[in-house]
Amino acid sequence: MRIKIILLWLVCLLLAACQAEISPTCEAGTLTYQNRETPFPVLAFPPAAAEMISMEINGKTIQFDQVIHGPLCNQNLSGTVYVACDVQIYKWEEKQNFLDDCDFKVADGTVIYVAVHNNTAYYNGCAACHVSGSEDHP
Fold this sequence. Notes:
The chain is an alpha/beta fold. It has one domain (about 25-130). It contains two helices and nine strands; from the N terminus they run αβββββββββα. The longest helix is centred in the first third of the chain and has 17 residues, at about 1-20. The chain is globular, with a radius of gyration of 20 Å.
């Protein structure tokens, strides 16, 4: 029995050693933080519908309706969305409430892949984590 446990431990150790090291999706300095005293521009009109954008995420090709670069504040997201590394967000102090004071909307059924979260897909919007007082709402 003891030999089986040792062999199992060695196999687990070998498998762990063979795993690829996970590196951050975004390089340091690609995310820009802006003071709240300088407001982000208001979107005058929604962006024109464009062709789908294909990107490889975690070894799988995904079609995106929107890819967000630049200011994240004042965006209207719908469909399948990729939030790239080079977004601009408000600075925060304690809670990551960088969407406070933004006109940020997420349509029902939207899937948001976030580069700074290692390309994790989110299905319930952003407000619960990034808007003050919205912990119970998507």
